[in-house]
Amino acid sequence: LFVETALGGGVAVPVDGNGAHYLISVMRVREGDTVLLFDGQSGEWAATAEQVRKRDLVLRCVQQTKPAETVPDFWLCAAPIKKGRIDLVAEKACELGVAKLVPVLTERSVVDKVNLDRLHAHLVEAAEQCGRTALPELAPMIPLARLLADWPAERTLFFADELGGAPMRDAFTAAPGPAALLIGPEGGFTTAERDLIRAAPQARAISLGPRILRAETAAIAATACWMAANGD
Ligand code: SAM
């Protein structure tokens, strides 16, 4: 179970709301039972249930069961797409091991707002499901030009360009180290945006093949390919 409290030996973690409902009514947790917790930074902890009431309980951390996880240094920067599809991207990015998810506002973005709370909930659910204990960082939405202006010098920016680029497998193996993938919106990038991205010194245009993939397919497939080449 994901909790906001920073975990450590002897720490008491109060749980209410949905978390308590899940533990008490669904999992039938009773006093003395063990529950596995993670806070996104401190690995996984076994905690003992105390003070189990109808709608809340307290969990006391007893022992660390997994060390803090190191995740591959890979960011997914993606233009927001329609609700169910961006939710899918967040879920799969978390499962695949992405360190940071960055929604990027582009000229052709049909969707110009992201619900960070909803995306965070999807990341938490995916982390719980796949046994990941380090939660991906979720950045607020940033306009493309600002993203590029502030781009860190040491991080390769793999730009998925449906108009052509290096085969992604070759590009990923040729540039190990901190990396990010940039995926466009439903309508793709404009010519001006494409020129701006290609002008960034860290940008490497990549092709995902001859077919135009849905934005979510491109994000998930290229992330999986980078992880296969460079992830743990
Ligand atoms: N209209 C479809 C949709 O609604 O999802 C296709 C969108 S495609 C233009 C969205 C983004 O996916 C592109 O901007 C690009 O980043 C990436 N993409 C899709 N196919 C690609 C390919 N074959 N090679 C490289 N990038 C690709």
Explain what this protein looks like in three dimensions.
This protein is α/β, with parallel strands linked by helices and 232 residues long. Helix content is 33%, strand content 25%. The mean pLDDT is 96. The structure holds S-adenosylmethionine. S-adenosylmethionine (SAM) binds at residues 160-162, 183-184, 186, 188-189, 207-209, 211-215, 218.
Q: Count all strands and give the number.
A: 12
Strand proportion: 25-35%
Mean pLDDT: 96
Q: Could you say which small molecules are bound to this protein?
A: S-adenosylmethionine
Q: Could you say which overall geometry the principal axes of the C-alpha atoms support?
A: elongated
User: Which structural class fits the helix and strand makeup?
Assistant: alpha/beta
Q: How does the major sheet shape up? A: 8 strands, parallel
Q: What is the helix/strand order?
A: EHEEEEHEHEEHEEHEHEH
How far apart lie the N and C ends? 24 Å
Please give the radius of gyration in angstroms: 20 Å
Low-pLDDT stretches are: none
By DSSP (H or I, 4+ residues per run), the number of helices equals 7
Name the helicity range.
25-40%
Architecture blueprint of SSEs:
Blueprint: E1 12-15, H1 17-26, E2 34-38, E3 44-50, E4 57-66, E5 74-78, H2 83-96, E6 100-105, H3 116-130, E7 137-138, E8 142-143, H4 144-149, E9 156-160, E10 166-167, H5 168-174, E11 179-183, H6 191-199, E12 203-207, H7 215-230
Parallel strand pairs: 5-6, 5-11, 6-7, 6-8, 9-11, 9-12, 10-12
Antiparallel strand pairs: 1-4, 2-3, 3-4
Helix pairs in contact: 2-3, 2-7, 5-7
The site of S-adenosylmethionine (SAM) has 17 residues, from α7.
